[in-house]
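ok posting inputs for the zinc ion job
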Amino acid sequence: MKIEEIRVRGTVQGVGFRPTVYRLAKAYRLRGDVCNDGQGVLIRVSGSEEDLTKFVTKLQQECPPLAKIQELSRTSYEGEFNFDDFVISSSVSNVIKTEIVPDAATCPQCLQEIFDPFSRFYRYPFTNCTHCGPRLSIIRAIPYDRHNTSMSAFTMCPECAKEYHDVENHRFHAQPVACHVCGPKAWLERADGKPVTASMFSMMDDVDAVCTLLQKGQIVAIKGLGGIHLACDATQEIAVQKLRQRKKRYHKPFALMARDISIIEEYCTVNAKEKELLTSSAAPIVLLPVLGRKQLASLVAPGQNTLGFMLPYTPLHYLILKRMNRPIVLTSGNIADEPQCINNDEAREKLGKIADYFLFHNREIVNRVDDSVVRVVGDTVQIIRRARGYAPATINLPLGFHNVPQILAMGSELKNTFCLLREKEAIVSQHLGDLENVAAYNAYQNTLNLYLNLFDRKPEAIAIDKHPEYLSSKLGKQLASANQIKLYSIQHHHAHIAACMAENSIPLNSLPVLGIALDGLGYGEDSKLWGGEFLLADYRQFQRLATFKPVAMIGGEQAIYQPWRNTYAHLLAAKLWDTCQQQYTELEFFKFLKQKPLKLLNQIIEKRINSPSVSSVGRLFDAVAAAIGICLEECSYEGQAAIEMESLVDINNLNNYKETNNYHFEVGFLDNIYCIEPDLMWQGLLDDLQQQIPQKTIAAKFHKNLVNTIVEMVKLLRQENLIDRVVLTGGVFQNCILLEQVTKHLQSLEINVLTHSLVPANDGGLSLGQAMITAAQLINTY
Ligand SMILES: [Zn+2]
Ligand SMILES: [Zn+2]
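and the output
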């Protein structure tokens, strides 16, 4: 007989880990106990050497679905040991590891119960267990116990309590456990305030009635897990059109939900990796290539070659879709740029003119958690929006960062997340949206306060973006001075690069990488706006080696939504506008630009009134897209023109453009660094337009040449610097063609290419990088 102490670290609390330990220990007739403590789970156990080894192997194999073992160590136990049996002990110290677990999609066992007429959970929309259900969305305070969640309003009935206390039940210690008798309820309301008459639906219940309403072409607001959605039948042209008009969301693609994968496969191709994501406990929206055989309503995702699908992730969604043999639109329930509504009154007020019906429930959503969005590129998963199912799972820090001081990083202005660093891990918040919106900013502050409870004491440092006007930077400054905390302001693109290094486990004292950060805008070291940067960087510092030629952003932010402004600015910068007036007067974009007050615009640029010079690749994409007729006049969301242009390109055809290649980017100098100049590219593009070369050919040639230019720049920089790793980051690298092609070419040069898979390449990943750079500056490295 041996007595061992087994220490397990990772995500092991509040996820059904102890019951698994208990079950297996019983199966091997071991004696001892298991408990949670400040470091994770501690097991003291006695048995034969052989049984103990089998037990540990099984524990790793049968790890519960939401648990993640990061480290398991076995040592022989010398202390007092008087157990006749195996038990779950109460926690040994009061320092419990305070971790919040992400919300998880309905598990197979609960799913089976909600469709089993003999189960007490039959058709119960809020069924959950230790392996599934709400977590982050209902938590008010730490630790994660029922009384600290919005389930505190419901008292468990005796049957639920019995399951909750039964260690062999899959609801053992499931904080949100509930049933028809004791738990939350769902009900239907009409938006016009009239009563819902029973004769309208001879359906099973209010949840089932939603299906009938959707089939009849109605718009229903559905309160779900982390927010309220707007739903309609995705195959009905009129219903989708009505939703777009009422919501005033004209172009941005709608997310879709389908009952099962076979329905999704009628519209999209789904590979094995994508299936795995769809059915994972995170259950994100997965962007899938359109198959083109069967059509949805044309307004579901105009100008896109992908559709964003998710599977039902709560019993409520399963019950609504049970009789639905086609996809539904399930888009966030909000007006304009506000965050998604989360409470009933707010929804009645704000969505009353959009929805025909509401399906409400009385379990309060404490934290707004949007649906996550992911995409598979090659064989890696790219996270575009990290929220439900992923946040706030921890990210392990690379070597050299263990025992970091506690740091709070405030994130960006758009697509904001914030990040906390402590001990060996980073906690990145869920996507919180664009802070310039008042409601989003308020939510940001509330969420920040909740997360700050995670700290035992206040953070030792606060990191902000260098941009003086970001609201997150201003708030960070206030917090730092009010609490006398050290403040670090971090350059935007350096933070992008550091985030990517961190998630790829690049150790603290590694050689610098070449970071290529291409995005819309970020505040530069020289107080100018950057957005096309080649930086030689480690976690501590960076050196700018190359950039793109700065071009005016006429009217500032207006240029993001009116792509023609960028086309005009680029043609002026390339000194091609006069040529246009002589030779290209018949081109569509030229005729369009001619109607604009060009004299006035010239003055604005000359006097630099609200027209900063920016080295932005995001704006270059806008300029090219508009020139070939995509969103020339306006777009309704940032990057729309670029995304629609990418959709036109047939990636398999890219290599056919070798012979006629005339879209050359030149390399010049600017302030003693290399500068990529697109002047000749524009000349080639104008010639092609004149010769009426198809839009998709021009789009492909532009992509191909931009890829080549980036690769050539890396080769050039490699002659002068020691570079074996290249980081690809920034929102522009969400362009799959660019990401895939640049990666492929660099790898063929035997360069190690690092890309994002845990946090977004866009500003959603920025906070992680800010925190890492600050940590590196704080850590003593002698
Ligand atoms: Zn379950
Ligand atoms: Zn109950």
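notes: The chain has a mean pLDDT of 93. The chain has 24 helices and 30 strands.
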